[in-house]
Amino acid sequence: MDEFSKTITKKTVICLDNAQIHHSKEFKTQISKWKKLDIEIFYLPKYSPHLNSIEILWRKIKYEWLRAKDYTSWQTLEKALENIFSGFGNIYNIIFKP
């Protein structure tokens, strides 16, 4: 963060999850210094899957793209996931609407 803060040229908001390191004493003691550099720290709510892209992807995989027969064995699940990941952006898409 200190190295990054040296590159800031305008007001910046840094969005963080609730990892322990982001709430450590060492980290929190730096927040006032960063604030003086026009850097705001914003913590995501404790549980916010709608703000986490990987959660959106996994929800689409689990509830829309995987079929019941894909769970019959580890090999069929692995093959189905490989198919989804290789087809992502082509066959499988996530469309975000405002």
What would you say this structure looks like, in words?
By secondary structure, the protein is mainly α. It has two domains: 2-47, no CATH class; 50-87, no CATH class. It is 44% helix and 10% strand. The chain contains four helices and two strands. It has a two-stranded parallel sheet with strand order 1-2. Helix 2 links the parallel strand 1 and strand 2 (39-43). The model has no long low-confidence stretch (mean pLDDT 88).
Report a brief summary of the structure:
It contains four helices and two strands, in the order αβαβαα. By secondary structure, it is mainly α. It folds into two domains: 2-47, no CATH class; 50-87, no CATH class.
Topology (SSEs and partners):
Layout: H1 2-5, E1 12-16, H2 25-36, E2 39-43, H3 53-65, H4 74-87
Parallel strand pairs: 1-2
